Amino acid sequence: MKISLIQPGRNNLKYLKWSYESIRRNQGNHTVEICVADDNSTDGTWKWAQKMMRKDPHFIAIKNPYGVRLGHTILYDELVKVSSHDICMIYHADMYLCPGALDAIEQNIKEGTIVSLTRIEPPLHPDGPEKVIADFGIEPEEFREREFLKWFEGPISSTGSFGGYQPKHDGNTEGIFAPWAFYKKDFQEINGHDPLFAPQSKEDSDIFNRFQLNGVKFIQTWEGCVYHMTCRGSRFADGAKRNPDGKVFMKNRETDEWLAQNERSTRNFIRKWGHFCKHDNLMKPIIPPKFEIGILLSNCTLELVKLLEPWCSILYTCPNTVDDYLFEEQSNTVVNLEEKLQIYSKDNEQPDILIQVNKDNQFTNQDFGYIQQMPEIINNDIENLSKELPCEFELGNLKITINDINNINDILITCGGLLRNKMEPDAEGWETFVTYLKNKAVGEKGMEEDYNDPKTIGSNSAENPGRGKYFGV
Question: What is the pTM (predicted TM-score) of this model?
Answer without folding.
Answer: 0.86
